[in-house]
Amino acid sequence: MAKEKTDLLQGTLDMLILKALQRGAIHGFGISIEIRRMSQELLKVEQGSLYPALYRLEEQGLIRAEWGVSDNNRKARFYTLTAAGRKQLTVETSNWEQVSLAINHVLGVT
After folding, report:
1. Among positive and negative, which fits the CA dihedral 21, 26, 27, 31?
2. Model's pTM, two decimal places?
3. In percent, how much of the chain has pLDDT > 70?
4. Are 69 and 76 in contact (CB under 8 A)?
5. Distance of alpha carbon 10 from alpha carbon 33, whole angstroms
6. 13-107 sits in which CATH class?
7. How many other CB atoms are found less than 10 A from the CB of residue 16?
8. Cα–Cα separations (whole angstroms), residue 98 to 67, 90, 104, 105
9. From the centroid of its chain, how far is CA 60?
10. Tens of pLDDT, residues 54-107
11. How many of the other CB atoms lie within 10 Å of CB of 48?
12. What residue spans define the domains of the chain?
């Protein structure tokens, strides 16, 4: 049975982007690929959702963007976590664990 793509739960995209950037600088398309890889191909982030989230996270000071050249020799913005972004990732991860635990209790999953 083939795995189906799962839509992102509302409010999780920022956390996933911060997690993808934890390993270092990545351009926007690379972030999408990293999230897909980390989710074992279950999550797909569309550009229409990704780039507004990146701009929002940059405005909030959670990520920083610099122009660079991608592997295929194209100009691209590379994003990195700021200290505030690392702290926010810790907060978001903790919140997710609590919500996930609560939902598992409701569903009777251990």
Report:
1. negative
2. 0.87
3. 90
4. yes
5. 19
6. mainly alpha
7. 23
8. 37, 13, 10, 11
9. 15
10. 999 999 999 999 999 988 899 999 999 999 999 999 999 999 999 999 999 999
11. 7
12. 13-107
